[in-house]
Amino acid sequence: MTEQPIGVLVMAYGSPNRPEDILPYYTHIRGGRAPSPELLKDLEARYEAIGGSKLNQISMAQARSLGNELNAAGDGRTYRIYFANRHWEPWIPDVVRQMAQDGIRQAVALTLAPQGSRMSSDAYMEQVDAANRELGEPIRFIKIRSWHLEPDFIRAQAQQVEAALTRFPEATRETLPVIFTCHSLPQRILTWNDTYPVHLREMGEAIAREVGLKRIDFAYQSAGRTAEPWLGPDVAEKVAELAAQGERAVLVCAAGFISDHLEVLYDLDIDLKAKAEQLGIHFERTPMLNDHPLLARALASAVRRALREAAV
Which of 28, 143, 199, 277 is buried most, with the most CB atoms less than 10 Å from its CB? Predict the structure, then answer.
């Protein structure tokens, strides 16, 4: 009898594929509340400025690369990759049901975001659990909450930092400020002793050790437009602070992201770059990992470790 394949559910945030998708997408991330005309117009303008989002295609390609890496290992297992989005098609509940229909009984679930948080990675897993509870025979899911210190992930990010450093004069690289960022979350996560800020710092420090960086700092970006306070400092505030101290160059490594998408292509490449130029700052950011081969290796390592720890 052929051994039952192990399912691997790879989950991403999702993005609108076409301009007409932006309203339903924005409504979904707002919990079903439609945005005001002003907010919708602003988001449409941002997507237009970056030429539309390719996040779904990039995320699916990353999932495929993970599958190729796992199945090429020759560890005696067969892996079947499934891809789902939290805020767009294919939806997580639909994909979990499809996994069950395909006969998957054992699976690993992970998100395409390295750090863990109750409001990010845990929210994906809650959708998995809710869909799984509705199945006649639930799938046994092993959940990877974070993979932010996988050695190949750190090496990949270090390579991106090293590549970006070459855009600065060699004499300035040793003392160049490098800011590590991830997506901001509401400040209330701090009352939960959430791991999110810890993981950002751990990622940045590990990458800095790999590269040998002398000056690093941490900030958040892309805060939501709600009345409640969000984690800070915002990266634009941090760049302004450095400018006030006399700095004239800065490198940003958005270590909390692994794909080119709106928060990188607009918030950093357009918005932050313009603010930095106004301050007389030479701004650069590290390339996103996207199809970097070490990313697939890092994710595969996380999957195999999760299976070992679960004794599967």
Answer: 199
